């Protein structure tokens, strides 16, 4: 592919990011660039300046000067001279390049998509008349942020298209964007100018007359648009969430999700990655009075969030349970955000979460005011399998819950079973949890319990009678459907009040502690030998 270069010719080396496979809109064949060769241009024999190179073409037996302009790692522009005789001086050849020399733009074939500059809806308003039969109507930002959707006014030629941004660069006040459709059949190129103090909204947008991107730098043949001001997102300038809502919140149960709340938005993370951003737009008030947010334990907010390339309206409700626990619910659609609805008129949430903050080092379980409700001893029937995966017993076993027996805000959950391999050895599993918040409705009393520093579950009691308790491991303490599905027989039954004997019972039995995941965690497995007594080390 190096064209049979004569040994008498000098060497020069092209370097990355010039090297790669490139395509030029409107041309089917790819352009290959390596250290010494460019497709259809020939072999590099000399470098005249920083970005000017001399190429010799064996087939045409002539040489030319090419000026490369690296606009972006995925976008390369070049100007090339006519093909001169081999004996012509280099200065003469390269000096023939002027600003009027045609400028070509090529793009990297195996590009990595980059973040688009479109962060919200751009609704377009055409300024000039041109030959375009179908004019664009709007640019929609998408999730993920490396893509956007271009919609057109109703016509038979152009259809709505989703594209990924591949190159962005600026030249003075002008900003250039190159994107390729998701099916890789179409290119979308445009340029725009923007205000000095507003990076999100262009003043004017210029769209070339075709999708070849050849006229990207030309304004004469472009269609000119401005932004329709009615499309700009509006939000309540006074909207700011109160202090008790702010910060990082974990989701109860075994979920990998967590939320981060700041003054103007709510961000949902899954496995450490941001998956959805809710931009708060309006505070929904049932009663209007001064200092509304700080005096309320329930807040309803209207928000917008992207799902792919569509903006979805949400009604978000935040309910204060304690300084370490809140409820968050999401309802989709404008109807769920109608103002001045009473509590019984509010729709059931599409999705609800119970959130908690991990207590900091200053949190003192002995002095904390939150008490575990309905203190006493609860036991399960045989073959009970709790939803929290803490037991070394693979089969079912009898579980005992000591609720508020040792300390008012703590509980202990224990079980004993025979070792699978050594039947004479009993395996004891126990966790110690701290109650962070308790709240009630007409049917149930709910308590969020944290254990092992960051794990959590919900403990559910009937409001009127101390008949049974249930442990929920879902993402919300308010989702009690599983209780009705499992029935009372799968709960923990109340057997009596806390007694000193129960509190000290385990201390009277010699135990061996098995290796646990960390020494300072509150759950552990221990074993008891039935055949002999021995001292615990």
Tell me about this structure:
The protein has 537 residues and is mainly β. The chain has four domains: 20-108, no CATH class; 122-231; 243-356; 376-528, no CATH class. It has helices at residues 90-95, 292-295, 481-486, 500-504; strands spanning 20-23, 31-33, 37-38, 42-47, 52-57, 62-72, 75-80, 104-108, 122-126, 136-141, 147-152, 161-171, 174-181, 187-194, 202-207, 223-227, 247-251, 257-261, 265-270, 273-284, 298-307, 310-322, 325-332, 351-356, 376-379, 399-403, 410-418, 425-440, 444-451, 455-462, 468-472, 492-496, 512-513, 524-529. The strands form four sheets. Strands 2-1-8-7-6-5-4-3 form an eight-stranded antiparallel β-sheet. A hairpin with a 7-residue loop joins strand 14 (187-194) and strand 15. The longest helix has 6 residues, at 90-95. Residues 1-9, 287-292, 342-346, 502-523 and 527-537 have low confidence and may be disordered. InterPro entries: DUF7042, DUF7044. It holds the Pfam family DUF7042. Residues 515-527 have a biased composition (Low complexity). Residues 113-227 form the DUF7042 domain. Residues 11-95 form the DUF7044 domain.
The separation of the N and C termini measures: 77 Å
Largest sheet features = 8 strands, antiparallel
SSE class:
mainly beta
Give the total of beta strands.
34
Q: Output the radius of gyration.
A: 34 Å
Globular, elongated, flat, extended or rod-shaped: what is the shape? Answer: elongated
Low-confidence stretches: 1-9, 287-292, 342-346, 502-523, 527-537
Domain module count: 4
Percent range for β-strand residues = 35-45%
């Amino acid at each position: 592919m190096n064209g049979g270069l004569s040994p008498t010719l000098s060497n020069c080396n092209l370097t990355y990011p010039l090297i790669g496979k490139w395509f030029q809109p409107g041309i089917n064949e790819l352009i290959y660039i390596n250290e010494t060769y460019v497709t259809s241009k020939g072999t590099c024999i000399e470098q005249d300046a920083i970005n000017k190179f001399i190429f010799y073409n064996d087939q045409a037996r002539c040489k030319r000067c090419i000026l490369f302009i690296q606009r972006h790692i995925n976008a390369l522009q070049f100007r090339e001279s006519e093909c001169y005789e081999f004996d012509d001086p280099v200065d003469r050849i390269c000096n023939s390049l002027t600003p009027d020399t045609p400028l070509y733009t090529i793009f990297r074939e195996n590009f990595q998509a980059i973040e688009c500059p479109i962060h919200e809806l751009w609704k377009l308003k055409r300024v000039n008349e041109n030959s375009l039969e179908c004019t664009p109507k709007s640019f929609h930002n998408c999730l993920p942020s490396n893509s956007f959707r271009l919609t057109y006014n109703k016509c038979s030629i152009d259809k709505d298209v989703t594209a990924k941004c591949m190159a962005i660069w600026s030249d003075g006040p002008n900003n250039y964007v190159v994107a390729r459709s998701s099916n890789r059949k179409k290119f979308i190129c445009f340029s725009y100018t923007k205000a000095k103090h507003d990076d999100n909204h262009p003043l004017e947008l210029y769209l070339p007359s075709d999708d070849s991107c050849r006229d990207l730098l030309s304004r004469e043949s472009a269609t000119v648009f401005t932004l329709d001001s009615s499309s700009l997102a509006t939000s309540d300038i006074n909207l700011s969430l109160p202090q008790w809502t702010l910060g990082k919140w974990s989701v109860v149960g075994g979920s990998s999700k967590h939320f981060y709340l700041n003054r103007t938005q709510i961000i949902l993370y899954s496995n450490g990655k941001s998956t959805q951003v809710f931009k708060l737009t309006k505070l929904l008030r049932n009663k209007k009075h001064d200092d509304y947010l700080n005096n309320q334990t329930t807040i309803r907010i209207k928000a917008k969030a992207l799902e792919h390339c569509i903006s979805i309206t949400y009604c978000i409700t935040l309910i204060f349970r304690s300084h370490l626990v809140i409820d968050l619910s999401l309802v989709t659609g404008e109807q769920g955000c109608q103002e001045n609805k009473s509590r019984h008129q509010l729709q059931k949430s599409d999705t609800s979460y119970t959130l908690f903050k991990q207590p900091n080092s200053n949190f003192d379980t002995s002095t904390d005011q939150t008490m575990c409700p309905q203190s006493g001893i609860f036991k399960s029937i045989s073959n009970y399998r709790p939803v929290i995966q803490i037991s070394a017993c693979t089969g079912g076993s009898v579980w005992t819950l000591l609720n508020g027996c040792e300390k008012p805000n703590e509980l202990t959950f224990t079980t004993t079973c025979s070792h699978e391999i050594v039947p004479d050895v009993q395996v004891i599993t126990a966790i110690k949890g701290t109650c962070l918040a308790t709240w009630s409705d007409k049917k149930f009393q709910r308590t969020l319990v944290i254990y092992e520093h960051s794990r959590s579950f919900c403990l559910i009691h009937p409001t009127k009678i101390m008949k049974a308790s249930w442990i929920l491991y879902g993402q919300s303490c308010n989702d009690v459907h599983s209780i009705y599905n499992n029935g009372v027989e799968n709960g923990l039954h109340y057997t009596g009040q806390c007694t000193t004997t129960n509190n000290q019972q385990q201390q009277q039995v010699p135990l061996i502690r098995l290796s646990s995941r960390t020494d300072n965690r509150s759950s552990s497995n221990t074993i008891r030998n039935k055949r002999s007594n021995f001292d615990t080390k």
